[in-house]
Amino acid sequence: MPPNPLVLVAHGSRDPRAARSTRALARAVGAACPDARVETAFLDFEAPGLVAALTREADRGQRAATVVPLLLTAAYHGRVDVPTEIGKAAGRGLSIGLAPVLGPVAGARADAVALDLLVRALQRRLDEVLDGPVDGIVLAAAGTSHVAALGTVDLVADALGAAVGVPCLAGYASGAGPRTGAAVRALHERGAQRIAVAAYFLAPGLLYDRAVDDALDAGALVAAAPMGDAPEVADLVLLRRAEAA
Questions:
Q1: Which residues of 76-97 are buried (b: 16+ CB within 10 A; e: fewer)?
Q2: pLDDT, tens only, 182-236
Q3: Options 3.40.50.1400, 1.10.530.10, 3.40.1190.20, 3.40.50.300; which CATH number does 112-223 get?
Q4: Residue 205 CB partners (closer than 8 Å, separation 6+)
Q5: Is the N or C terminus of the chain more exposed, i.e. has fewer CB atoms within 10 Å?
């Protein structure tokens, strides 16, 4: 029997760039850990769904699989949707391990390795677009109404700002937190002139575009691409797999 498969489950999007990015990350994870068979699944918009992907593994004769949610906060999708789909796949003779979401969870300040990997991935994408120093950063995220999840994005923003040595504020495309444009204006009020946008996204899509456009309209100079298949993200996926085991 081949090694237990690693199933990466993303939210999914109507934007075809998102699925391409998810599959690129799966290839990066496979390259980082050649003994792993890495599959992809989606909660919505794209096939296969998580239930279908897990059922396929059971039909192959697999006895166990590990699911890693490609989510950056433990909000509704991570707390409800993924466990619900795993529950639907139960009873097929497949033992399913569920890893934590990729981002830090509320109160988990000791999750230093994961936080460091995220910051390094964000810096990698910023370095790809910056042509000079900046004095402020907006960490653009999708957003949620789950307040505790917003706090974990602030944790990443604080760590990124400390690593770069400039103020960093979180901004959102939706949900309860401030919009990215408001974060840019807040940094301007503090005296920042050269503001870059770091993308706390794993893949491009509608919310990424909305967050970036709002920040650029408010005066940000440049916006980084989503973290995507950055090697640090691949390492983080494998870290979460190990935690599930």
A1: ebbbebbeebbeebeeeebebb
A2: 999 999 999 999 999 999 999 999 999 999 999 999 999 999 999 999 999 999 9
A3: 3.40.50.1400
A4: 13, 14, 15, 17, 18
A5: N
Question: If you write DSSP's letter for every residue of 35-94 in order, what string do you get?
Answer: T--EEEEESSSSSSBHHHHHHHHHHTT--EEEEEE--SS-SHIIIIIHHHHHHHTTTSS-
pLDDT at 1 over 60: no
Tell me how far CA of residue 199 lies from CA of 63, 85, 92, in angstroms. 37, 28, 39
Q: Is the pLDDT of residue 3 over 60?
A: yes
Orientation angle between helical segments 180-189 and 206-217, nearest 10 degrees: 30
Q: How far apart are CA 204 and CA 37, in angstroms?
A: 25
pTM for this model (two decimals)? 0.93
